[in-house]
Amino acid sequence: MNTRHVIELAPSGKTFEAGDELLLDAMLASGLTVPFSCRRGACGSCKVVVADGAYRAKQLDPGGPAPSYPLAANEMLLCQSHACSNMRLEIPGWSLDTPALVVEATVLGKRALSPDVIELIVMPDMPLAVRAGQYVKFRLVDGDSRCFSIANLPAESDGRLGFQIRRVSGGLFSETFLGAVEAGDLLQLEGPFGACTWQDDDGAPVVLFATGTGYAGIKPILLTALKRDVEVTLYWGGAQPADFYDRVFLDRMIMDHPRFRWHPVLASEGRVQEVALGHGHHWQAAQVYACGNGAMISQTRAACLEAGLPSHRFVAEAFVPSGRSSAGVPSKPLDPIWEKVGPRYSLDGMLAAREQSIRALAAIASQLKVGMTTGEALDMAAEQLHAMGASHTWHPTYIRFGADTVRPPREGIDRQRRLRATDIAVVDLGPVWDGYEGDYGDTFVFGDLPLHLACKKALHEVFDETREAWLRGLTGRELYDFAEQSAESKGWRLARNLAGHRLADFPHALFESKVLAELEIPPSEMAWVLEIQLCHPTEPVGGFFEDMLMLQA
Ligand SMILES: Cc1cc2nc3c(=O)[nH]c(=O)nc-3n(C[C@H](O)[C@H](O)[C@H](O)COP(=O)(O)OP(=O)(O)OC[C@H]3O[C@@H](n4cnc5c(N)ncnc54)[C@H](O)[C@@H]3O)c2cc1C
Ligand code: FES
């Protein structure tokens, strides 16, 4: 007899029933939203905390791989377990109510901060989970929208969102719409989005750059730094003294926080990056954030990197025109069968997840040390992803050293293998950021062995050529045929079992999924990951690179 057990999910109190089937299948059948991905006990997405009740592990297929995700004593994987009694479970970092992509918000008020900057305060009809530094899109008629940064920490303002909006001459939102809006009006907001967010708590000295209302994106990061009592310095550029419209607040913070400095920089007196470099920060250890005009961001990035800042420690948002005519639009509609997405899918979300994944990869690569075992590297990567705010890893983190670089990801590796002074290493990440799947991987060469360097070079050439072929309209299958020939022409073998896959709002595993190499239509942008793994035909040397297919990579 298939006894049914009642499974309660804390703290919501929602329940579902489960019998002999896997708990993951029972929960999916009940219509509840479930975090999951691999279904083989490797990614940990479906991890729950068992607060009460008994369960048994799934019987393994003969010769099949055992679940490899490490669990604490009170944790269990839904995809690997059957209930043996009524149970009470908690799903860490997961809400059963999928946050809406679009919310309504009521205008609470607006006031002038300076002759051309307006502060707008709104209250969304449901609390938004906002990370310091993110923005929302204000929806306008006809599907158009405008981006504005959330200039406060909503969780500390009863959920209110504050914006600082510069009047743009002839601007549809900042002039026409904002001029007419009144307290009580209803607005539609999409988001929050963005990867220019507070990164982690490693205590690094923080250097902030803003021009004009770029300060709106920087202020929540400043507030976070002040709360954590780290050393923080702000350089704020403006054309005239009135542009430093939050001066009173900043001067007060200097009195309250001895580790905080701020410098107003008038355009007539120099540029923010010039002033900062003159102050001799310890750039090798700093964490830099920049918001505002695009020229300031690219010049500041170049100057800071030149001074020794590691590239992944420069985090920025350019305040460019954000109307429909200037924003990225998908090249073609997604295929309704092979490119299904969830209710929160958005290009802004996918782009932010990609950006944060690239940054995480660089941060992890910078911590790979000669002598470290693969196991130690995996533990370090897990800590880094957690510190940067990843809620899940939709696929396990793969790190491969030396001869393991020719193995496909699912094949077991030697956790005790040590990174040597002359070596080649692969890192492949699949983190989930704010409900969006990121996926990024690359190969790193230690020492200067010509074969290792040649592998990395060929890898990137094959990827770039295959991406170019995608722009010409090839199907997924044709892309991998093309990549195979491209690899061969360079003296390498393409590992075709690493064949590309879907990416969407988490979890894309809900939808029927093909590998990219079997797709008979041209893949759309921002829905697929192109994976390239090369192996040397005779030597145990391999490399891996992957990225989301997008028009402007
Ligand atoms: C992620 C993000 C966050 C942003 N956050 C803020 C914020 O917090 N505060 C803020 O004031 N702005 C912010 N911006 C910039 C803002 O979204 C744009 O300026 C927006 O287009 C203004 O809308 P509008 O309808 O008033 O003007 P539009 O109708 O979009 O533009 C009118 C004319 O002005 C030009 N224009 C518009 N904005 C700019 C600009 N920034 N630089 C140069 N030319 C421009 C347009 O090309 C067009 O010709 C942000 C932009 C992004 C991408
Ligand atoms: S571990 Fe269960 S879905 Fe991956």
TrEMBL record:
It comes from Pseudomonas libanensis. Pfam families: FAD_binding_6, Fer2, NAD_binding_1, Peptidase_M24. Residues 5-95 form the 2Fe-2S ferredoxin-type domain. GO terms for molecular function: 2 iron, 2 sulfur cluster binding; oxidoreductase activity. This is (Fe-S)-binding protein. Its cofactor is [2Fe-2S] cluster. Keywords: Iron, Iron-sulfur, Metal-binding. PROSITE patterns: 2FE2S_FER_1, 2FE2S_FER_2, FAD_FR. The keyword Acetylation does not apply. InterPro entries: 2Fe-2S_ferredoxin-like_sf (IPR036010), 2Fe-2S_ferredoxin-type (IPR001041), 2Fe2S_fd_BS (IPR006058), Beta-grasp_dom_sf (IPR012675), Cbr1-like_FAD-bd_dom (IPR008333), Creatinase/aminopeptidase-like (IPR036005), FAD-bd_FR_type (IPR017927), FNR_nucleotide-bd (IPR039261). Residues 100-199 form the FAD-binding FR-type domain.
